[in-house]
Amino acid sequence: QVQLVESGGGLVKPGESLRLSCAASGFVFSDYYMSWIRQAPGKGLEWVSHISNSGSAIYYAGSLKGRFTISRDNAKNSLYLQMNSLRAEDTAVYYCARDRRGYSYGIDAFDVWGQGTMVTVSS
Amino acid sequence: DIQMTQSPSTLSASVGDRVTITCRASQSISRWLAWYQQKPGKAPKLLIYMASGLESGVPSRFSGSGSGTEFTLTISSLQPDDFATYYCQQYDPYSRTFGQGTKVEIK
Lengths: 123, 107
What we know:
The complex is a heterodimer.
Chain A: E1 3-7, E2 10-12, E3 18-25, E4 34-39, E5 45-51, E6 58-60, E7 68-73, E8 78-83, E9 92-99, E10 110-113, E11 117-121
Parallel strand pairs in A: 2-11
Antiparallel strand pairs in A: 1-3, 3-8, 4-5, 4-9, 5-6, 7-8, 9-10, 9-11
Chain B: E1 4-7, E2 10-13, E3 19-25, E4 33-38, E5 45-49, E6 53-54, E7 62-67, E8 70-75, E9 85-90, E10 102-106
Parallel strand pairs in B: 2-10
Antiparallel strand pairs in B: 1-3, 3-8, 4-5, 4-9, 5-6, 7-8, 9-10
């Protein structure tokens, strides 16, 4: 079935880096825009970044100030988020999510979500 | 970035009640709006896309309306499974902003 599985979360110190992965299965990964969304403990959802199906179009939330980099490997059916210069306020569950329809339809809502991976930034 | 504001932040209601949640955008987003339901410890679930499109498998008691800058999510008859937090989200080509969420609690 259609599935997204995140991995790579953990406990890191302020200023360190971490790379999250999202493994996709059950659909043609290269046809879909993908996104990262995060949720701090007890807080709401915050969109982080999205990437087009080919990887040619990438957008980030303005609050990230260039510290995060989204990428994808369509041959490996995988989405990535490289996070540098991590801060305490980056502590959150990080979800990957798929646009509801394929790239030919343009931007869409998120219809498939992973279970999330927890990132904790603390000294 | 486009800002999304939901109201109320918390809503207390009883089973069978009609519930309405409002979402306002800081600028016109046409109908590029989605609604999600999230339960504790779970990923969000898509309910409504394009302001009023009902996602497959979602009960018909959920409905969405609006365009431009003002949108509503209505639950026609609240069921026990509906107590959760609801988020609106705009999706334009450059960003995907969420509202702050509305928690629907048991009265």
